Amino acid sequence: MDGDDEGVAGPMGDEAMFLNGGDDGHQQQRGIKAAMGGEQMDVEAYASLYTGRTKVVRLLFIADRFGNDGIQLEALRLAYDEIKKGEDSRLYREVAGKIACRLGPQYALDQAWADAVARRAEQRKDKLDNELNVYRTNLIKESIRMGYNDLGDFYYAHGQLGDAFKNYVRTRDYCTTSKHIIQMCLNVILVSIELGQFLHVSNYVGKAEQTPESPDPITVAKLRCAAGLAYMEAKKYKLAARKFLETGPELGNNYTEVIAPQDVATYGGLCALASFDRTELKNKVIDNINFRNFLELVPEVRELIHDFYASRYASCLEYLENLKPNLLLDIHLHDHVGALYTQIRHKAIIQYTHPFISVDLHMMAGAFKTNVSGLEKELKALITDNQIQARIDSHNKILYARHADQRNATFQRVLLTGVEFERDVRAMLLRANLLKHEYNQRAPARKA
Amino acid sequence: MDSVEALVAHVQALSGNPEEVSHLHSLLKQSEDSLRSQASRLLPFLEQLDPSKHSLGYLYLLEAYSSGPILREQASGYLLTVVEFINSCSAEQIRLTPDKFVSVCKSFKDQVMQLQVAIQGVAPLRTAIRKLQTSSEHLTTLHPDFLLLCLLSKCYKAALSILDDDIFEVDQPRDLFLYCYYGGMINIGLKRFHKALECLHNVVTAPMTALNAIAVEAFKKYILVSLIHNGQVPSFPKYTSATAQRNLKNYTQPYIDLANCYVTGKFSELETSIQTNIEKFQADNNLGLVKQVLSSLYKRNIQRLTQTYLTLSLQDIAGAVQLKTPREAEMHVLRMIQDGEIFATINQKDGMVSFHEDPEQYKTCEMIEHIDSSIQRLMGLSKKLSSIDEHISCDPAYLTKISRERQRFDFDDFDSVPHKFLQT
Predict the structure, then answer these.
(1) Are strands A358-360 and A390-393 parallel, antiparallel or unpaired?
(2) How far apart are CA B61 and CA B39, in angstroms?
(3) CA A193 to CA A201: how far, in whole Å?
(4) Which Gene3D superfamilies does the annotation name (chain A) (predicted)?
(5) Would you give the end-to-end CA distance of chain B in angstroms?
(6) What is the Cα–Cα distance from B98 to B400, expressed in whole angstroms?
(7) For residues A3, A4, A6 and A12, what is the CA-based torsion angle, rounded to 10 degrees?
(8) I need a surface site. Which of A3, B113, B124, B267 has the fewest CB within 10 A?
(9) Is B116 exposed, middle or buried (0-12, 13-18, 19+ CB in 10 A)?
């Protein structure tokens, strides 16, 4: 994993390498522990899962979220190192501002470096623009595509995501093979995810999947992840879960500029728990060999899924609680943690009550590690939503399943329908008459 | 002078059989203007006529008389004359000139209202409606006036015999608006909320090209009554005119806020929302209804509890529906059990309430009779529907419109065209 990480980061930071060679080694020394484990987050381990822009953005996100000075500074320091490898002088100034000299002179704003980068960027941009103009006058499709692509890469590296997006999209007209199209789509998806525009993401995933030649397994896995993210952002957890579960093990560390395999396990696991029913959970998650590989990376999620399936709700909920602080620091998941957690909890409660005619609330409260009155409230909400067919005996603290009397319900419905029909027909006849009247009233006027 | 006497003589001579009456009708029409010019002197001549035999002539004279100003001292005499006429006139003769009859009744109604003796007008107007209408499904112009008098005199029950008729034929849309609006108010007064909703619903969904004040007021009441009766306000059905859909909400904002607040089921919020708009409700004379909305929230919340609980202590009920003491909760539950709104028993020893399922088993004779009567009613209604359908498909105006439409469609799908119009 280490070697891989360095390899991907290398080309991106080539030009800036000479300035921060020392830090680089230091960063990787500590090795990688399980990123999600434990109470306190290991920022370095977490950061090492990602490469490219997303690493910086994620670190900044953590820094913004944390009041705690130590972790905030740690995150900022890592972000600083990472940025220095790249060329985004604007982001650099921002991070340097945030550090505000709290990390000593080594991490102060390096004005000279920033200016140099900006100057170089200016030159390079002119060069690329010129090249592109030449290509366009010559009307060589492939070269024009390359030109736009280079411009897109350039803007992306400098943090001008909007421009990068535009240029990547422009290459579309000059794509000749499915390989080009897929490359274009992947570029657009990457930028769109950074921009938070997930509508584009699902759009371009669709385009990429429609190419006549089937792409290689790694690309397929990437596309699945991107689609899953898009669905998750749209709060369509079931579809998101399906996409994550379909992600092949080929993903490995090939898409670290967007998502780490650990994330696939967490996102997919939580979405699946929140939206699947028991059989689906068994067939698609627990018995899914591909996904099992991902789950091995995050043993907590694996355990909690198994606990959920085995109806050990207390330990399942405990795992969830432990995971929560770290999940809240995830750039994609944090908005959805609350919704997913309540859905999972409701599912657990519904499943618990399902097989019984009567349930002792004291026992149930024990199983869910809560008190009776709290549980009663949750049950009440679920009954009101018609998710549990049962009624609470609040005196003896017992939940009784309720079986609707089909015959009576049918009678009730029939009578109601009759009354409604009668009312509607009468009202309709009356309206018809009024319309007729209006027609009569207008007729003479037309003659005159 | 001569002409009136001559006319009276004609009336006396020509009231025997239908042909004579129609001849008399044309004579009377010719002398209409001269009658009007001598309006104030006509009263003595009326005494020479018998309202039951000479109804048509009597009507013309009476109408001419009432079109002039009526002095205060003559008013009670005038009222008596009209009441007697309404009670004894012959229905065939007055139906020859319904507008004259209506105008007499209207001036009668105005007089009654001016003298603030609305109750005196209730019975005569009911008779007048029965004599004027050709069938019980016919809405006359007198209907709204009658209901107005019932409302003013608070004789709600007197209006029932008219209100319970199904109305299908309408002369004037305005009559229908007013009739349904007043009818809705009377039904509210009698606490027949489902009927009131039906009436107000008719006003709100009636076809209209321009918004009118009646519809706005009716919509306000419709919102309140829907909340009391159903706990929510249904959205406009799709046949509602575009004008109503677009504009009604703009004029009824406080009521819509109230409805939104009600749905949350929080008593204190509803109370504050009412307090902020209390002047508007008062100005609309709807404060009483608004208070009923407020108290209906208790009921609704208690009813909701029956869905989730088998037993619940009075203390918890009071907490759940935001009542102050368990004692109050007990009163509410008790009243609801009495009214048959919930099925429950109170155990005073433990302070527990056990909720039961609806004990109705749909096995009793009464229930079967009830179902049978519903079926009969629906069958009658569907017969009517098919006869109207037949009628429309023979209607020349409809056919010309269809044939015009048909040209625009391909021959292949002309079959679907009639269906499209049958549904509207």
Answers:
(1) unpaired
(2) 8
(3) 7
(4) 1.25.40.570
(5) 57
(6) 32
(7) 160
(8) A3
(9) exposed
Q: Contact B314/B351 with Cβ under 8 angstroms?
A: yes
From residue A294, how far is each of A3, A289, B316 by CA, in Å? 20, 9, 48
Tell whether ipTM is more than 0.85: no
Determine the Cα–Cα distance for residues B42 and B33; give it in Å rounded to an integer. Answer: 13
Query: Residue by residue, what is the 3-state secondary structure of B65-101?
Result: HHHCCCCHHHHHHHHHHHHHHHHHCCHHHHCCCHHHH
In A379-398, the residues whose Cβ lies within 8 Å of chain B are 379-380, 383-384, 391-396
Question: Which residue in A391, A431, A439 is closest to B310 by CB distance?
Answer: A391
Place of tokens 């048909």: B406
Question: Does residue A409 belong to the interface with chain B, where contact is any CB pair within 8 Å?
Answer: no
**Adjacent-strand bridge partners of A385:** none
Report helix, strand and coil shares of chain B as percent, to nearest 5.
Answer: 70, 5, 25
Angle between helices A2-13 and A69-85 (to 10 degrees): 60
C-alpha triplet B316, B322, B326: angle, nearest 5°: 45
Q: How far is the CA of A77 from the CAs of A83, A259, B367, in angstroms?
A: 10, 21, 80
d(Cα A175, Cα A178) in Å, to the nearest integer? 8
With an 8 Å Cβ cutoff, is B171 touching chain A?
Answer: yes
Helices and strands counted in chain B (H then E): 24, 5
A-chain CB neighbours of B390 within 8 Å are none
- What kind and span of H or E run contains A390? strand A390-393
Q: In whole angstroms, how far apart are CA B312 and each of A157, A337, A401?
A: 65, 34, 16
Does residue B155 come out as left (phi exceeding 0), alpha (psi in the -120 to 50 range) or beta? beta
Q: Where are the beta strands (DSSP E) in A52-179?
A: none
What are the structure tokens assigned to A301, written together?
Answer: 């999620």
Angle between helices A111-138 and A141-157 (to 10 degrees): 160
Residue A321 has, within 13 A of its CA and on its CB side, a CA count of 8
Nearest CA distance, A349 vs chain B (angstrom)? 15
d(CA B132, CA B139): 10
Token pair 């002539």 is found at B57
Residues counted in chain A = 448
Residues of A within 8 A of B172 (CB-CB) are 437
Query: Both tokens of residue A83?
Result: 């940025």
Q: Find the residue in A nearest to B306 (Cα).
A: A391
The crossing angle, in degrees rounded to 10, of helices A406-447 and B193-205 is 40
**Torsion angle in degrees (nearest 10) through CA of A382, A383, A388, A390:** 150
Closest residue on chain A to B237 (Cα)? A424
Q: Is B202 on the interface with A (CB under 8 A)?
A: yes
Instruction: Let me know: does A269 contact A232? Beta carbons within 8 Å.
Output: no
Place of tokens 């997006």: A165
What does the pLDDT profile of chain A (448 residues) look like in tens digits? Answer: 333 333 333 333 333 333 333 333 333 333 333 333 344 567 788 888 888 888 888 888 888 877 667 778 888 888 888 888 777 778 888 888 887 777 777 777 778 888 888 888 888 888 888 888 888 888 888 888 888 888 888 888 888 888 889 888 888 888 888 888 888 888 999 899 888 888 888 888 888 888 877 778 888 888 889 999 999 998 899 999 998 888 888 887 888 888 888 888 899 999 998 888 888 888 888 888 888 888 888 888 888 898 888 888 888 888 888 888 888 888 888 888 888 998 888 888 888 888 888 888 888 888 888 888 888 888 888 888 888 888 888 888 888 887 777 888 888 899 899 988 988 888 888 888 888 776 555 444 333 3
- Cβ burial of B115 (10 Å; 0-12, 13-18, 19+) is middle
